[in-house]
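Worked example 3 (structure in, sequence out).
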């Protein structure tokens, strides 16, 4: 009989994982503690913007006309425990307020709420990004709480999906990593992932700590690449070099690769910044903090980029205070193809200028609702052209395709000054300069 799967937590990770498991042919039951989320998902609506996710949900959510009916949602822990052979824990692990460490309370609460009802054999699989050592601790907790005793086992299976590509990354992962303690756990996970593995996704079997570390070290490496190129941008700026050319040229070396070498205002979002901080905090607890001191520099280079963008804007406007200056901001989300504004460099830059007296107007294709909620005092416009109307400077801070496709001539007619600062090195300088704009980007020559 086909395995029955449950997914606990229905954020970016869980909602996508649940829909993907249904797409792979399993019966799936998703659980969340927020009633509004469960109601929306039950109607086949996604509480966030993620390309392709709503279509996938609607294809499987029970009760939707023409759906497979394989996917349902509930708030009932006992129902989930009774239903599942494999339970995926997909709740978030945010940064603790005022600390580097991550907040494990959601994971702990999820495992404990579930464990009390687990009276039949099953596998609980952690997917959340956690400090190394958590799986070991949670396995002991399961054993302590679950009425099913040793028949209730834990495994760790980190998730590497990127927002904006969540569906594709979940259905066709680069690799599947599983931390297991028994052949039975490995066998169950091989069954779950049989389809992507048959299609070529590598399946890496390892122990708990290694599985946990694969995730945090992968994110640390990605963050390092971005901060490395941003450091090179600073040097280019000082020496009169062009960081975009430099990235292209070093990227031709296969050992370095072209990806994640786009200089700009740096990384944000709900993962990279908090994951590298939590990793440092955990290394400290383990007495290995020396090994990760470089991550402190990666973090500070990243945060410095935001301030440098503000200074670039100030300088471009002739120096001095922002008071009375009209600043158009294109982009609010931390990356394109997402509505996520968590730790968004774009909103941070917009906020700094606003707090220094600038009259800021923000436009983003999908992030307006979340941005307004997080930063209600900023000005907002419904279109890029409205944001740019009357602006003394335009800041391009999230590299949406829509912004690359803007017509600089049309925008030039409504802007007060044709001055654009590209905080993502993603626009075509020649196009903008050709339309009479002064184009500036971090780490690139002025003209
Ligand atoms: C990241 C990891 O990529 C993913 O594997 C993990 O599961 C979760 O964290 P995500 O947070 O969706 O995914 O974003 P990602 O695509 O990695 O981008 C992170 C940030 O880096 C964005 O703000 C992006 O704009 C920035 N970035 C990315 C750069 O500044 N330069 C680059 O070259 C690439």
């Amino acid at each position: 009989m086909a395995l029955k799967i449950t997914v606990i937590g229905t954020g970016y990770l869980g909602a996508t994982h649940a829909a993907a498991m249904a797409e792979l042919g399993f019966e799936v039951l998703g659980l969340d503690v927020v009633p509004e989320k469960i109601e929306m998902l039950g109607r086949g609506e996604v509480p966030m913007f993620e390309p392709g996710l709503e279509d996938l949900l609607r294809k499987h959510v029970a009760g939707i006309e023409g759906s497979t009916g394989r996917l349902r949602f509930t708030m009932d822990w006992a129902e989930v425990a009774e239903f599942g052979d494999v339970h995926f824990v997909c709740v978030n692990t945010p940064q603790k307020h005022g600390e580097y460490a991550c907040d494990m309370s959601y994971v702990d609460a999820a495992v404990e709420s579930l464990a009390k009802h687990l009276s039949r054999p099953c596998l609980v699989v952690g997917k959340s990004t956690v400090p190394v050592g958590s799986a070991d601790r949670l396995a002991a907790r399961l054993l302590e709480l679950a009425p099913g005793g040793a028949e209730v086992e834990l495994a760790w299976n980190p998730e590497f999906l990127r927002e904006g590509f969540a569906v594709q990354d979940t259905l066709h992962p680069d690799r599947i990593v599983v931390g297991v303690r028994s052949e039975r756990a490995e066998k169950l996970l091989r069954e779950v992932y049989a389809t992507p593995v048959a299609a070529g996704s590598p399946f890496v079997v390892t122990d708990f700590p290694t599985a946990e570390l694969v995730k945090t070290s992968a994110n640390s490496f990605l963050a390092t690449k971005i901060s490395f190129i941003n450091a090179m941008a600073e040097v280019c700026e000082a020496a009169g070099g062009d960081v975009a050319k430099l990235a292209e040229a070093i990227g031709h070396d296969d050992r370095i690769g072209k990806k994640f070498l786009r200089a700009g205002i740096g990384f944000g979002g709900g993962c990279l910044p908090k994951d590298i901080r939590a990793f440092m905090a955990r290394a400290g607890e383990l007495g290995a903090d020396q090994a990760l001191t470089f991550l402190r520099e990666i973090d500070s280079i990243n945060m410095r980029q935001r301030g440098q963008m503000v200074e670039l804007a100030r300088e471009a406007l002739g120096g001095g205070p922002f008071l009375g200056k009209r600043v158009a901001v294109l982009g609010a989300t931390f990356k394109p193809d997402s509505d996520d504004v968590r730790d968004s460099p774009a909103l941070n830059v917009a906020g700094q200028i606003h707090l220094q007296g600038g009259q800021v107007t923000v436009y983003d294709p999908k992030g307006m609702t979340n941005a307004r909620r997080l930063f209600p005092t900023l000005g907002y416009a419904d279109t890029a052209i409205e944001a740019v109307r009357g602006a003394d400077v335009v800041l391009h801070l999230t590299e949406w395709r829509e912004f690359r496709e803007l017509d600089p001539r049309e925008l030039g007619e409504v802007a007060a000054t044709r001055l654009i600062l590209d905080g993502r090195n993603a626009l075509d300088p020649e196009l903008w300069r050709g339309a009479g704009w002064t184009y500036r980007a971090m780490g690139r020559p002025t003209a």
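Notes: The chain has two domains: 4-206, 207-447. The two ends are 66 Å apart (CA to CA).
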